[in-house]
Amino acid sequence: MADDDARLVALARAGDVDAFAALIRRYEQRVRGVLLRLLRDPRDVEEATQDVFVQAWRNLGRFRGRAQFFTWLYRIAVNEALMRTRRKRPALQELDERLLAAPDPEPDLRDLLVRELSALPFEYRAAVVLRDVEGLTNAEVAEALDTTPAFCLSIASFYDMFHTEPVGRHLVEVCTNVSCALSGAQDVVDALERELGIHVGETAADGSVTLRAVECLGGCGWATVVAVDNHHRLHVRAADAPEIAKSLGEGTA
Ligand code: FES
To answer: N or C: which end of the chain has fewer CB within 10 A?
Structure first.
């Protein structure tokens, strides 16, 4: 694909409109998807998508081929979204505030992700969309955002809901930070390891569950805190481990 991109780009740079049209067909959907997630207003997306390809066509002469074509295209798309976001900032802030102020009492994972993304600064949101939705590697995201792979990795590892490795269908996370550690978090970890048949940091061979030890989950006054599929359980004790393991099997976590 990359070789074919390079061939089409070379033809397009020589003025071959059909070659550029082939590149548009290849990447239009992905560019539109990125813009949709960054702009969040479908009314802007079509126009922004067209603008991205117009800019790409006009600036093809500057594309040196050191980066991959699609990461260069993503960079144009992210800049376009950033420019449009800045122009609309007051309205967007209002939307973000509404999303954050009125949380669904029982949000599903999609609601949580939308809310998490809405709360992120633009450049973080762009990194998450490219990495976790578009499937780019940290190096490719860094290339597209003109930043470093370390910056991308720091985002992925900072937010609990984003993972640097695939996780199981269920995710059990035990806070082992100070308050929870003093309240017996290690006993909870040990008990869950026994019940789930895996060590902390591992995923079961059948992909059913991942067990992790994590930093503070924000419930220090209710230690030990355990997040089961992002639902927080408070005052968890080692004796609760069998019930937690059972609830995973029943899909009631
Ligand atoms: S230390 Fe465990 S929730 Fe804060």
So the answer is: N
